[in-house]
């Protein structure tokens, strides 16, 4: 036999459950505003930055190296889910002695693992970082 207290407890529990489910499902609606940034030091005196954010159903990946020296040539690559997604060469420019590259990659289901590497062939300095988005 159900008592008034049992019914009240069931109603409260159901309401809380609905609110929790509603809150949990609201998270992905704001996924377009998600952004992750990682920064670090390279093997020499330079610094690196890796930024990943959503953009029209894809991921926008931006890698940056700041060496404070203009005219340095670097080779870089972006990895996504363990595979090379992009690679190229860049030269640091004034006024900050830095370069940045931006590429878009597919947004895989679930978490995406993104890696960034840049190497100065002349000095051997290497910058490397990664994140899970």
Work out the helicity level.
10-25%
Q: Helix tally?
A: 1
Task: Please provide the count of β strands.
Answer: 8
Placed side by side, the strands forming the largest sheet appear as 1-2-3-6
Condensed summary:
The protein is α+β, with helices and mostly antiparallel strands and 133 residues long. It is built from one helix and eight strands.
Structural write-up:
Mean pLDDT is 82; it is low at 4-32. The strands form 2 sheets. This protein has a 4-stranded antiparallel sheet, with no helix packed on it. It has a 4-stranded antiparallel sheet with strand order 5-4-7-8, with no helix packed on it. The chain has one helix at residues 4-26, and strands spanning 35-41, 47-55, 58-66, 73-80, 83-91, 98-106, 113-119, 126-132. It is 17% helix and 49% strand. The chain contains 1 helix and 8 strands. It is of the alpha+beta class. The chain has a single domain (34-132), classed as Immunoglobulins (Immunoglobulin-like, Sandwich). The chain is elongated, with a radius of gyration of 23 Å. 20% of the residues are buried.
Which key terms come to mind for this protein?
133 residues; alpha+beta; Immunoglobulin-like; four-stranded antiparallel β-sheet
Helix-strand blueprint:
Layout: H1 4-26, E1 35-41, E2 47-55, E3 58-66, E4 73-80, E5 83-91, E6 98-106, E7 113-119, E8 126-132
Antiparallel strand pairs: 1-2, 2-3, 3-6, 4-5, 4-7, 7-8
């Amino acid at each position: 036999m159900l008592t008034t207290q049992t019914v009240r407890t069931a109603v409260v529990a159901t309401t809380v459950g609905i609110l929790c489910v509603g809150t949990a499902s609201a998270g992905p609606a704001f996924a377009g505003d998600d952004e992750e940034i990682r920064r670090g030091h390279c093997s020499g005196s330079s610094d690196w930055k890796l930024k990943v954010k959503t953009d029209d159903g894809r991921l926008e990946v931006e890698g940056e190296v700041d060496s404070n020296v203009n005219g340095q040539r670097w080779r870089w690559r972006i990895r996504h889910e363990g595979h090379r997604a992009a690679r190229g060469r860049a030269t640091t420019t004034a006024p900050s002695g830095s370069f940045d590259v931006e590429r878009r990659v597919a947004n895989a289901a679930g978490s995406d693992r993104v890696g960034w590497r840049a190497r100065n062939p002349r000095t051997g300095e290497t910058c490397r970082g990664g994140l899970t988005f």
